Amino acid sequence: MRENMQWIDKGGALLLAGALLALSGPLATPEAHGAPGTSRIPAAQGAPGTSRIPAAQGVPGTSRTPAAPAPAAPAEGPDPIDFAVVVDQSASLADKDLARETEAAALIGQGEISERSRATVIGFGSSEKPGQSPVREVCPLTVVDAAGRQRLSDCVQELGKRDPARTGPGTDFPAAVRQAVTRLTGPGGGTGTTGKPAPKVVFLLTDGRLDVADSPEYGSDRESRQVNGARRLTEELARARAAGVQIWPLGFGGEIDRASLTAMAEGGYRGACSQIPGSTPRMRVVDTSAGIDKALQETFAAARCARIEHGTVGKPPADLTVVIPPIATDGSLTVAKHDPKVQVTYFDPAGRKVPVRGAFDGSDFEVSGENGPVEALRVKNPLPGRWRVHIEAPEGHRDREVAVRALWQGRLRSTVVLDPASPRAGEQVKVEVRMQTRRGVVVTDPKQLAGLSVAADLSGDGFRPVSFRLADDGKAPDAAAGDVRFTGTLTVPAGATGALELVTRMEAPGITSDRRPLHAVVAEDAPLVTAALTVDGGTVHPGGTVHGTLDVTNNDSAPHTLRLALGDQTPGAELAVAPATVTAPPNRSTQIPFTLTVGAGTPLRELGGQVTVVDTADGDRVLRGAFLDVLVVAPPTWWERWWKAVAGGAALLLVLGAVAGVRLAARRRRRDLTGVTLELRQDGRPVDSLTVRRGQSPGGAFAFAVDEPYGAPPTLRRIPGGGSSAAHVLRRTGAGELLLRTRGGGQVPVRTGEPTVLGEHELVVRGGRPAPSGARATPWARRPARGGPGRGGTGGTSGTAAAPVGGTGPDTSPGASDYDGNF
Questions:
Q1: Average confidence score pLDDT of the chain
Q2: Rounded (to 5) percent helix, strand, coil in the chain
Q3: For residue 485, which of 16, 302, 433, 822 sits 20 to 30 Å off, Cα-Cα?
Q4: Which of 70, 155, 60, 52 lies closest to 105 in space, CA to CA?
Q5: What ranges make up the beta strands (E) of 4-80?
């Protein structure tokens, strides 16, 4: 792996450094980045908050570098990630390959979207003689805020300064993994929206395989060193797994040991940023170093549950474009310039030049790496659409292609509806979720949420948290598929006693939820079954009965069996209740009569005791009770009981019979519509008429319809049987007043000879005295029916009439009390 070893020149090293600069963000001051007479070493080698480099590492003296400050925790920002970019600097790596690695490292540092993330950059080779170290921490763990990104942009340049006196030409994977895990598991890490620590990820860039054959610390001979090195690597991966550190290897070139890289990916922590496939650590290989920047950015996006959009490529001067979708809330536009002389200007989808720092039209901007080979513009709340990146360069600096990409993540705000808002324990509730961005854009396009999985967690007092899924598939309870309203149901646990908290969560590539809780309180349980009980009082004879009424309301979805019971009875009383059991139908109120029978042997006295109603379906819970207030007295003789009733009844019957006969005959005469003619008019001209025949107005009501055959004048048609809701009805009250009830409407008074609006026509009622049997119709009598026998024709029934004057309430006209109710 060493025979092709080459050393990069000073200019190339600066280029690589600039690319790495963009990698993560601000680092340390220039003095801490490798200025003459200074150097850096992991903080773990010195006192807390400082780092010391032994003289054995080739630089006289020591330096101290403050520990990475604790990241800020701004609200609404994307979740942070702590990551290490571990770069292979072994002798097998050509200068151009090292430059590619450097730029790739710079790209992911520059493209990181959270200013609370932390990054470190570590170069590694081997240690084969005194003064050498297998690892070289060129960028200590640094918060990737505005200043930190610039520091990282500076310190990453150190990757290009390979010094054989400090780092050997081998490939010591165990030392590289150990150094990265130690840095990432130190104090000061941030937390995500769930309160969990930030994910810890190692990105390992290499072109070869394990090579510690010449490293004395692994053994006394070359063969045993390789075996011991492989064993040590397994131990370091187990340590990473225990510490929750993911390993994402990225190999390139023809000497890759794929099995070893796969083992490293699977040996570290296997947790993922979501349940979405692709976010679990895996190995990736590219054929040459030319594609390593693209591959590493895609790997980085997968590791932090973000999405990457590849833009266009061109040589300056040119306009490059990349699309940011509507659901993006945080993003970075990375520009792989290769040459620091390339100048970049950014334009939003509205064609406006955006500032490189500060706020503009609801977005926040921050650029870094302007003077390096990799530049990035971090945008919070970006305007969705096609962004334009204009690149310029002086003569002599226009020969290399520039690529633009967008790394983005959508942190959506969830709008949650809980129905009912205050559920009862054991009650089924419906949860509906909609989503919008921080710019207030409601997400309505289901394509933007492809692969989205939505779930909710319910926690509260008295029960263990429960989880359930929500869907937008149009299946109940979801109203419609693809309307981006995710719906689900669950039953509140029966043990719920107080406060409830509902938190929705969404998982999809590039999309995270704000996990904003919805708070509710369990409603106090009203009894599912309630009852009222009344028992008639007064006197009763032995063998007689006492009546009572049970009013019961059952709010349950199932019927309840109730039992009527007698208690605390008077000694000697012979009482029986019937029915002894009753059924309360579900979801309704019911009134149930019952009787108490007093036995023939019951003593003549006042009875005590009570009647209770018991819910057998609820553990014999007593719903209600009522006291008895009954006096038992001796029964009278038959004549004593009935003589007055018999005499009075007989006389009354005679009188009532006579009066009823007279009134009935008079009422029938007054209400009879026989001979009345209905005349239908259109545009003031009669078009049809219909005369009521004898026997066609039972109860003083005549039902009819207006048929409107196609291409012919409308006609009147009688509806036998008293009519229906689809008919008009003309009736006469006991006082002789004519009333018209239109189809589906109210009733209006009608005056003989005066037109009344009936839909699009007019109706005139004529006559009113009984017509002789067999009387002929008026001169404009009905025409023969069209379309078949009878009067039906082929037309439809007329629509509604004009709104009734005086409302549609109950008939209060004189004689209305005589109406028989068949209207």
A1: 78
A2: 20, 35, 45
A3: 302
A4: 155
A5: 25-26
**What whole-number distance in Å separates Cα of residue 240 and Cα of residue 246?**
7
Q: pTM value?
A: 0.53
Interaxial angle between packed helices 173-184 and 222-243, expressed in degrees from 0 to 180 and rounded to the nearest 10: 20
Least Cα distance to 81 among 109, 53, 49 occurs for: 109
Sequence-distant (6+) residues with CB within 8 A of 723 are: 701, 703, 704, 729
- Round to whole Å and give the CA distance between 743 and 761: 14
| Residue-wise pLDDT tens digits, 545-566 | 889 999 999 988 899 999 998 8
Q: Which of 1, 22, 30 is nearest to 89 (CA)?
A: 1
* Category of 440 on φ-ψ map: left (φ > 0), alpha (ψ -120 to 50) or beta: left
Q: How far apart are the first and last CA of the chain?
A: 105
Q: Which two tokens stand for residue 97?
A: 């390959």
Q: What is the pLDDT of residues 422-463, one digit of tens each?
A: 788 888 888 888 777 766 566 767 777 776 788 889 999 989
- Rounded distance, CA 444 to CA 491, Å? 29
Cβ count within 10 A of residue 242: 12
Token couple for 249: 């290897």
Structure-token pair, residue 442: 């409601």
Helical ranges in 329-478 per DSSP H: none
**Side chain identity at residue 466, one-letter code:** V
Dist. CA 733–CA 363, nearest whole Å: 77
Q: What is the DSSP string of 684-733?
A: TEEEEEEEPPTTSSGGGEEEEEEEE-TTS--EEEE-GGG--TTSEEEEE-
Q: Do 294 and 313 touch, CB atoms closer than 8 A? A: no
DSSP 211: B
Burial of 392 (0-12, 13-18, 19+ CB in 10 A): middle
C-alpha 64/C-alpha 62 separation (Å) is 7
Given a cut of 60, whether residue 273 has pLDDT beyond it is: yes
Closest CA to 487 of 436, 449, 432: 432
Rounded distance, CA 552 to CA 530, Å?
A: 6
Cβ neighbours for 185, distance < 8 A, ≥ 6 positions apart: 200, 243, 244, 245
Tokens of 608: 């005590």
Count other C-beta atoms under 10 Å from residue 74's C-beta.
12
Beta strands in 555-615, from DSSP E residues, in sequence order: 560-567, 575-578, 581-584, 588-598, 606-607, 610-615
Express each pLDDT in 192-237 by its tens digit. 655 678 899 999 999 878 999 999 999 989 989 999 999 999 999 9
For residues 628 and 76, what is the distance between their CA atoms, to the nearest angstrom? 69
